[in-house]
Amino acid sequence: MGIIPGILKEAYFLLNKMSPFLLFGFLFAGVLHIFLKTNTVSRHLGKSGFLPVVKASLFGIPLPLCSCSVIPAAMSLRKEGASRGAVLSFLISTPTTGVDSIFATYSLLGGLFTVYRIIASFVTGVLSGILANFLIKEQVSLPEGEAERCKLCSSGEKHVHSIPYKIKGVFSYAFGDLLKDSGMALLAGIVIGGAISYFLPESFIETYLSSGIKAMFAMLLVGIPMYVCATASIPIAAALILKGMNPGAAFVFLMAGPATNIVTMMVVAKNIGRKSLAIYLGSIIFSSIVLGLLLDRIYMYFYREDAIRLMIHYRAPLPCWVGTGASVILLALIAFNNVFFPCIVSET
Fold it and tell me: What's the average model confidence in pLDDT over 18-44?
């Protein structure tokens, strides 16, 4: 088999596993976007202390924002009076999860890994926020906010839309705006995962990156500077696990990769301060390593060594035709939003 067909075959395997869950996740993300009021979120995060940090992490977990798209949202919260701790907590928990990523994680890595990833995201976000509030003292004042503009029509006046119009908005955001922002990155992650499965010999992972602190620090060095969204990183982690990497080391990549990138670090340093950046990175590094080691212990205690690799290989919660059909729909939507629709707009 040639190189390109081999990579595409592995990528196709990953795509079919993930597509049904991705479509459902994108739909749920659209519901959150339309029905969750921005001013409500800001009001709950606009004070210093422990509770706003916890709320920020909880609010951030289901939101489908990557490590770049979360930046304007976090900076907006900061301008509206949110504390440094709440902003940092939001910055970490939001890009490391998201409803689409949660369902995609379940599709490839199973329920235990999915629940553990959600809890780890929450814990890391809260840890960062608490440290920021404790180490960086500030006076937080809540400015008077202007009226929130409607997400459907951008009007600032009080009005009501019909349910069918809101449903249209849900689908427009979920399978339009959101897929336009993340679709190509998602496909890139799947192709990279396919390439890893095809090229990387199992002996390399088993010898050099299978387990331990060395593998986890290697994943930190790879994940921290690069841009990879929470969903697009999943097939890469799954491919590494299939090649012999322990779940804990793959988990470190899933935490560090989506939570950080060079752009985010520069924005945090400029707008929140270098101390905040140090706390932000330190929390991610510390939590990733400690929680990665704990995850390996959990798998060693409850499962045999190759359990998660067998699960990825043979996991089939849905019929094959469902995965194939969902893949066709997902690819068509990504193509429309990233290829055909921009061409139509430019011609008009």
Answer: 74
